[in-house]
Amino acid sequence: MSTDPLPSSTFESLLNKLLVVVELTQKPGGATTPQAKQELLHATNEFKESLSRARALAKDLPGGELLTEEQDEVIAMLERLKQKKQYQLAEFSAQVLSTESVPRRAAPSQNTQMEVDSNASTPA
After folding, report:
1. Which residues contact 43 (CB under 8 A, 6 or more apart)?
2. Tens digit of pLDDT for each residue in 64-105?
3. Exposed site from 15, 83, 87, 123, fewest CB < 10 Å?
4. Do 81 and 56 share a structural domain?
């Protein structure tokens, strides 16, 4: 089984199989001979099997159990979430850019002496 959840080849072959069935039924004289009936039966069964496989694939898609209205609600909710995330990203980006424009204080030079309060740093 392929990893593609919805292989397009399954759906593309439906039209060709349907055309074969239609052509066999539209032949002059129809399906009167045993061989013609057998060809028509075979073509019809192939089409039915492909159609059944295509239905099963479509039904098994994630979200396929939802009604169209429910799918529209989920899509709208995801679009709102996307907009919110884009807004948050733009705000964050603006904050980062504004803090980068503020000059940083120079680090103390090597010659600077620091006083250390030994009492404050000694545990009790």
Report:
1. 17, 20, 21, 24
2. 678 889 889 999 999 999 999 999 999 998 887 777 665 666
3. 123
4. no
